[in-house]
Amino acid sequence: MLGVIIGIGSIIVIMSIGDSAQYLVVEQIQSFGSKNVYINPGKASDGLFSQSGQTSATLSTSLTLQDVERLKRSVDVPDAVVVNPSVTLSESISYESETKSATIMGSGAEVFSIYNLSMQTGERFSKEDVDARASVIVLGKNIASKLFGPQDPIGQKVKIRDQKFKVIGIFSSKNSAMFGIDDMATIPYTTAQQTLLGIRHFHEVVVQARDESAVPRMVEDVKRVLRDSHNIDNPDDDDFIITTQEDMIKSVNNILGAITVFLSFVAAISLVVGGIGVMNVMFVSVTERTREIGLRKALGATDKTILTQFLLEAVVLTGVGGIIGILGGIILSYLLTIVASLVTTSSFPFVVSLPGIVLGLSVSCGAGIVFGVVPAYRASKKSPMEALRYE
What we know:
The chain has helices spanning 2-30, 56-59, 65-72, 111-114, 127-131, 141-148, 176-179, 189-197, 215-229, 245-267, 269-288, 290-298, 303-344, 354-380, 384-389, and strands spanning 36-41, 80-95, 98-107, 118-122, 136-140, 157-160, 163-172, 184-188, 204-209, 240-244. The protein is α+β, with helices and mostly antiparallel strands and 391 residues long. The protein has two domains: 2-26 and 253-389, no CATH class; 61-238, no CATH class.
């Protein structure tokens, strides 16, 4: 039964951990707010990379300040309550002798409410800071700790590309473990565009609807406004990509689901090994019990009776192995979620995969039937006269 136990247990663990990861990622995405709609430059057909090998969002200049201003107009997008443009870059932030690499988001003042960032200390930058192209920065708590240690960072100045930025606040996010937000920093997008990047376009624009039910209608309004602004008549020529929370969750579920299925198939290889083991054991059993088979047939047992007896033995053998594998898989899954939560500082939920349990029982019993039918058939066809003479 060992091969069956290991195979079923592996499938249960993989499916349970896969479901746990799906729940965690979906929960993290949902915490950003179901009312957010994300607009990125580029074509949907480009996928992640454009033909030149660089991300299309970085190369494309299709999202401009004119687009942002039009999206803010209630006459154009009546359901939008917040429109927040942003640019992103990876740079080193230094303070005295300490230098740390970080993702820096140049954004509008609404970035803190859109991404549910809470201030640990200090203050956020304001719309006035954005308009004035102020050299201020708000650090994630992790990057602040790495740069300043126990020292209070508020009021200190850090350097990015030899430009000095005054630290005015420290933020934290409950999504940091999954998305690394606490290792990021944010500055006004006007400052990032002019001082650090030398560009006038945006890498992303987030539009927040007044409520979740208004999102589909707002998406259509956004498409209409951007197509009009970019002089696009054919939707296939769109130079922007719109993503909702539902789209993100669907993509995550598809990816993690495919990985889980693939790994389950890999784990199922051990079931084949276990099934072959069951078949070999049944062959040995048929040989060792030849006289018993002959005696039963001499007393009136039919071929069907003998076939059913040995087939049921094989099913019971694999079924018990399946049950043990399921119980072992559930216990191991629980222990692994605890370890994963401690290692990643994310709260992995413990999920018992009901489809995995049903699949495990079905596969284990099925393996007993498939791999037990040949030995059982051989036993049923033995001649009672020859069987009784067998030594």
